Amino acid sequence: MDSGVLIPLFPLRILPLPGELVPLHIFEPRYKQLLQDVEERDVRFGIYFDHPINNERLGSFMRLESVIKRYPKGELDVIVKCEDVFVLKEQKGTYPGKLYPGGKVHFKNLNLEKFPHQELFDAFTIFQFKRGITYKNNAFTIYQIANELSLDFPERYKLMTLSSEKQEQFLKTKVSYQTVLMEHEEKSRDIYHLN
User: Coil, helix or strand for 153?
Assistant: First the structure.
């Protein structure tokens, strides 16, 4: 039986979605050591979603995009990007020979280039148009759509536990709901200006 892949872990109360860019301020010695390894050896790491709703033990597999700022005492501001989602099989207090934690994980191996079916594509195009956003290239993936919707933790978690087909339906519902909210907001503004 496959026991999983051992990766460095950074437990946080966030669940980055595939393709999402996340700013982090690194200040604890163990995570400064992790970022040093990430920079020097191009190591990927996991942000484990440390939240009570995480019964599936999900986390996001991250890579360093850029270092924004270095502070005199070794703190860092960085941008990291989610490349995949994993299921944590076994958590270890420390990664071998390091200060930071580690864990054995199984990757979901998500298709980050999965494009939406026409119905979701059309709904999202209308949603973005109402937000004043138009695209020269009308190709976007379901995860790019998800990253535009400001999903809260339970919604992100639910999305990542659904099958690919159900993910699209979930996103279509969210896009439609947010589009209706914007339409009501526009109507309210118009009524207010008329009085």
Answer: helix
